[in-house]
């Protein structure tokens, strides 16, 4: 059922065109009570990079999905648990379980550096529009462990893949400045463009906030929620300054390797893969970027 993404592609393209047209016709935003402010909207090189990253992700997943499905099937056959495939309540449980898995995958992807090396691709644009949603990593393997428990809980592999696709389609629509705040009950329960703008912010108060996929309740429960307030500055705390897709995909992996080369102790070399972004082996305890508040979802270049 992951082909739902394929069916959604024409709608993605149509919505991209409509959003770009809205910038051409309107040129500024109207959400909240801020004065009308010129927006960057779409920038040709940035958009081409985002689309290229998305196409690369699709191509890589052609082979990687075979591995994922094989593992789901193996675990599903091993577990004695079976969730019904025709009961509404099983799909409700799957929706909740999938969204919780996404929250923790997303949070770990910001706080563990090898996860960030993959996920940083999605945050590398200084623009925020629907094309940004398509700026996806070329190393999607870091996500796998978070969904394996769903197969062990007895959800059929096709059900897991379908719910993952539904979540990704929903999240596509979050990447826009053309939608302001939605009614309060919606904003309290669901992830919205307002909440996700915060997540993409490089402002100090917005770092490592609002990890939710479809629901925002996990952030409220686990203390990572931040409402949208000051104007969001998009991108990384230290931007990479390139539109080269290969560099966008690999820059953090290269930075990890460079940091490992500078460390003498094997333990410190390994810590560069599992410590938060910004951690340094040669700084005193309590003075690393990772030890200060707020926690930084930075590139390896941050702090240099």
From TrEMBL:
The chain crosses the membrane at residues 7-26, 54-75, 87-106, 138-161. Residues 285-304 have a biased composition (Low complexity). The keyword Transport does not apply. It is found in: Endomembrane system. GO terms for cellular component: endomembrane system; membrane. Signal peptide: none annotated. Residues 275-304 are annotated as: Disordered. Keywords: Lipid metabolism, Membrane, Oxidoreductase, Transmembrane, Transmembrane helix. GO terms for biological process: lipid biosynthetic process; membrane lipid metabolic process. This is C-5 sterol desaturase. Its main location: membrane. It comes from Paraconexibacter algicola. PANTHER family: ALKYLGLYCEROL MONOOXYGENASE, STEROL DESATURASE-RELATED PROTEIN. It is a multi-pass membrane protein. Pfam families: FA_hydroxylase. One of its GO terms (molecular function) is iron ion binding. The keyword Membrane applies. Residues 91-224 form the Fatty acid hydroxylase domain.
